[in-house]
Amino acid sequence: MSEENERPENRLRKELPEEVPARAPEPASEQPAQAPLTGRDRLVKGIWPPRVSRAQLIVALLLFGLGFGLAVQVASNSDSDSALRGARQEDLVRILDELDSRTQRLEDEKQGLEKQSSELQSSSDQAAEARKQTAEKEKQLGILAGTVAAQGPGITMTIEDTKGTVKADMLLDTIQELRAAGAEAIQVDGVRVVAGTYFTDSGKSVAVDGNKINAPYRFKVIGKPQDLEPALNIPGGVVQTLEKEQATVTVEQSDKIVVDALRRAKRPDYARSSSQ
Amino acid sequence: MIAVLGLVVGVVAGLLVRPEVPAVVEPYLPIAVVAALDAVFGGLRAMLDGIFDDKVFVVSFLSNVVVAALIVFLGDKLGVGAQLSTGVVVVLGIRIFSNAAAIRRHVFRA
User: Fold this and answer.
1) Which of A170, A211, A173, A206 shows the shortest CA–CA distance to A190?
2) How far apart are CA B88 and CA B27, in angstroms?
3) Domains of chain A
4) ipTM of this predicted complex?
C-alpha cells in the first residue's frame, strides 16, 4: 500500500520538488543562525569551558603582567606619601616652602620655650639656694636667739657661792666678759642667755630673766676655749673679782659643750622687718 | 578562562609580594598599566567581534606598553612629561571608553 501510494504520489506530485526547497530553507536558516555567533555567545564560549591553548596561555601571561603592574602601582600609590606623588612641581615647591617656614616657626617656639625652661630652672635653683641659705641663717640666728640647741667647744665655769655674796651685777659682768671674749651661746643653770637677758637680785640668790637660780652657778659657754679662759682670768677680771667676794670659781675647758636650754621665739609686737 | 585566571593571579601576586617599584620604572608604570588596559579592552572587543587573534593581541599589548612608556620618557626629556602623560592617559581613556561601548553593545545588545 505504501509503496503503491508512494509511487502514485511521486508520480502525481511532479511539482513536489518545490517542497524540497521548502525543507531546505530550514537547515539553511539554521546555518545563518550559527554563523553570526553573537558576542555574548563568544564571551560565554571563551570563558566556559576552559581550554588550554597557546593563545590562552599567552594572553594569560600578559594579563598576569597587567594585573601585577596594576596591583603594584595601586599599592605603591596608596602609601603614606601618595599625596605628594601626583603633585605638580609648583605645588611641591609651595609645600616645601610652607614646611620650611613652619619648621622655622616651630624652631623659634622651641628656642623660646627652652629659654623659658632654663630661666625657670635657674630661678628654681636660685630659690632652692635662697631657701638653703635662709635655713642656714635661721639656724645661726636661732643659736643667737636661743631657739635652737647648740654644741661645740667651750668652757664650763662653776661659781661656788657658799656665803651668798655673789650679786646679779657680778654675773652680768661675767656674761659681758664672756661675750667680749667671743662666746656664742651661753646658759646659766638651765637658762639660756640671750640679748634681752637680765639679772636681778632675789634675796640671797639671783634671778635670770625672772627664773630664780641658786649657787653654784654653772655657766656653759660655747666659744674658743683658749680665748674664753684667759678673758676670765685676767688680773682684775671676773675671777679675781669673784674670789674677792669669797666665791670659788672653777673653769674647765672642754671640746664638747652642749647648750640645750631653749627660748621660745617671741614675735615682736611693734617692730617689723624693714627689708620687706 | 585561563586569561581571566592569569589576571586574578597577577593582582593577587602583586598585592602579596608588594615589590618596591624601581625608581627608574616608577614614572612609566602607571602609563604602561593604562596602555595595557587599553590593549586588553581592544582584545576583548575583538573577541566579541569574532576577529580575535592572539598574535595581534600580543603585539598590540606589548607595543602599546612600549609606546606609552616611550612617550612619557620623551616627555620627561623634553620637560613636558606631566602634560604628555596626561595626554596619553586621555587618549587611552577615550579608546577604552569606545571599546567598552562596543563591548557593551555586544553583551547587553544596547
Assistant:
1) A211
2) 13
3) 150-259 (3.30.70.1880)
4) 0.84
Cell of A247: 666665791
Q: Which conformational region is residue B20 in: left (phi greater than 0), alpha (psi within -120 to 50 degrees), or beta?
A: beta
pTM, two decimals, is 0.45
Rounded to a whole number of angstroms, the distance between the first and last alpha carbons of chain A is 152
Give me the half-sphere count of Cα atoms (radius 13 Å) on the Cβ side of residue A38. 10
A window 42-61, beta carbon within 8 A of B: 42-43, 46-52, 54-61
| Main-chain phi, psi angles of A214, to 5 degrees | -115, 155
Residue range A179-223, pLDDT digits in tens: 898 888 999 888 888 888 888 888 878 888 888 888 788 889 999
Within 11-30 of B, beta carbons closer than 8 Å to A belong to 11-15, 18-21, 26, 29-30
Which pairs with CB-CB distance under 8 Å and at least 24 residues apart come from A250-255?
A: A250/A157, A250/A158, A250/A160, A251/A155, A251/A156, A251/A157, A252/A155, A252/A156, A252/A157, A252/A158, A253/A153, A253/A154, A253/A155, A253/A225, A253/A226, A253/A229, A254/A153, A254/A154, A254/A155, A254/A156, A254/A225, A255/A153
Q: Could you tell me which of B87, B7, B57, B96 has the C-alpha nearest to residue A64?
A: B7
Q: What is the largest CA-CA distance in chain A?
A: 194
Domain spans of chain B, in order of start: 23-108
Residue B81 CB partners (closer than 8 Å, separation 6+)? B27, B72, B75
